[in-house]
Design goal:
Elements lengths: L2 H7 L11 E6 L3 E7 L19 H20 L7 E13 L8 E12 L2 E10 L2 E14 L2
Antiparallel strand pairs: 1-2, 2-4, 3-6, 4-5, 5-6
């Protein structure tokens, strides 16, 4: 799935789209996607000027966006102007490696459970073979309005 297909499935837009490409998706089970970390991203101006570092919360957001793509695939739903995904929980988040411009995050998300509109995922982002962040995520899909 390239960026054009991703933009048809996610409500996010620049500068907040955190998934650049989907490498593989196993229907209703798992997704592997990429986030290219580049120096021209706006948060690097202030985080941190002497040593640009991707904020941990944005690494979690990248994982959440990958999980949203997996949820759309699993549910068979399509994006419309009224459908949004929200975090409802982040458990066991651990940051294990600094992520800097030039790194490529491999987003690896597995759907663990879906019950009553709540989706639970096991998620991790790697740079090469090193885990940068891992967490258990919970999201829900809601209609705006």
């Amino acid at each position: 799935m390239d960026i054009h297909q991703i933009l048809k499935r996610l409500p996010h837009r620049y500068p907040f789209v955190m998934v650049d490409r989907v490498l593989e998706i196993e229907h209703g089970k798992r997704i592997r996607a990429l986030k290219n970390v580049t120096i021209n991203e706006p948060y690097f101006v202030g985080h941190f000027p002497a040593r640009p570092t991707m904020p941990g919360v944005l690494m979690l957001e990248a994982l959440a966006q990958a999980s949203a793509l997996l949820t759309f695939d699993a549910s068979g739903l399509t994006l419309d102007d009224q459908t949004l995904f929200y975090f409802v929980g982040i458990d066991a988040a651990r940051f294990k490696r600094v992520v800097e411009p030039g790194d490529q995050l491999l987003l690896d998300v597995t759907l663990q459970r879906q019950r009553q509109g709540i989706f639970r995922y096991e998620a991790k982002a790697l740079v090469g073979s090193e885990v940068a962040v891992e967490a258990d995520l919970m999201t829900t899909m809601r209609r705006a309005g």
